[in-house]
Amino acid sequence: MQSTSFVGQYFSALRKFSNYTGRSTRREFWGFTAVAAFLMLLSLLLVVVLAKSGLDNYFSGESLLIIPGVVAAFHVIPGAAVITRRFEVLGLSGVMTVLFAGFGGLFSIISATRVLARFGVLGLAVLCLGTAIVMSFASYPGTNRFGPVP
């Protein structure tokens, strides 16, 4: 039986990290996204607490940022898998994941430059909002070329 809690959906998405075929429910996508975002915020809070406690005297302040970096890196592949399966629910190809990731990388590079930083941050915000809107659409009714309704 499939768990209905966000944490259950998160672990369901983690178990299917290598499955880029099939379809994923909105609940699975949002459960994974919510728990991953919570873990990311928790790791950032841990960095702040460790830095304020004086631990940064033993390490350079930037070296503590490895903690949220590891958390983010851990979620890249399962996140791409759940996004790909969610696109397939909508009847779109998983190639859309590559396009969204490519634009995200482009906007990240642009935001790192001083001249176009505002454009890059605005582009990332629009991309994130657009992804959230697309992922909120209802499923393609019935069976599509990617399989039956999940």
Describe the structure.
With 150 residues, the chain is mainly alpha-helical. The chain is built from six helices and no strands. Helix 2 packs antiparallel against helix 3 and helix 5 runs antiparallel to helix 6. The longest helix is centred in the N-terminal third of the chain and has 27 residues. The protein is globular, with a radius of gyration of 18 Å.
Keywords:
mainly alpha, single chain
Summarize this structure briefly:
The chain has 150 residues and is an all-alpha fold. 65% of the residues lie in helices and 0% in strands.
Lay out the secondary structure.
Elements: H1 6-15, H2 26-52, H3 66-74, H4 76-89, H5 95-112, H6 117-135
Helix pairs in contact: 1-2, 2-3, 2-4, 5-6
